[in-house]
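Explain my protein.
***
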Amino acid sequence: MNVAFPEQFPRVICVVSTRRGEGTTTVAMGLAVSLARQKKRVALIDLNFREQGISALFGAPPRAGISDVLAGNAVWKDVARDFAGVQAAPSGTSPVTDPLDLLESQDMRAFLQTLKNDYDAVIIDTPCLSEYRDSVIISRLSDYVLYVIGSGMAPREKVKESVRLLGDVRLGIVLNREKD
């Protein structure tokens, strides 16, 4: 995966899509590995507290992750696992009754700031915009939004609505699943 970003390299990048199955987790993982191959220190975090994106991609059962760190039940070094030079952590196993509240918390801001201080890039996998507004909050905590559009998957009006929901963010687009 070759990626070019405008101006100064964004440190916190959230990966979003309109619908499930458009490939946000795969794109987030590919971007993280690509950056690690460029000798960048990369953290990949799953902030989809409703579905296990990163764990599912690895074919692993749910395990301690970000929700556990934010609940004070674990620390980053214990939940992050090395994958191809990337420190990756799943969303976690601690119950999150209100994901929006957690995402807007000071604890989340402090956690992201710590990662930003410790890594060259923080890649965030997020839930789809058509079902949840989590990605809107996460986009405002990020330096850059990478919007994944699955070719032929989301109707044009839904894509426009998703972009409108994201608002005034630095935005890049990935066309995924394009057929020859």
Remarks:
- The chain has a mean pLDDT of 88.
- Residues 24-37 form the longest helix (14 residues).
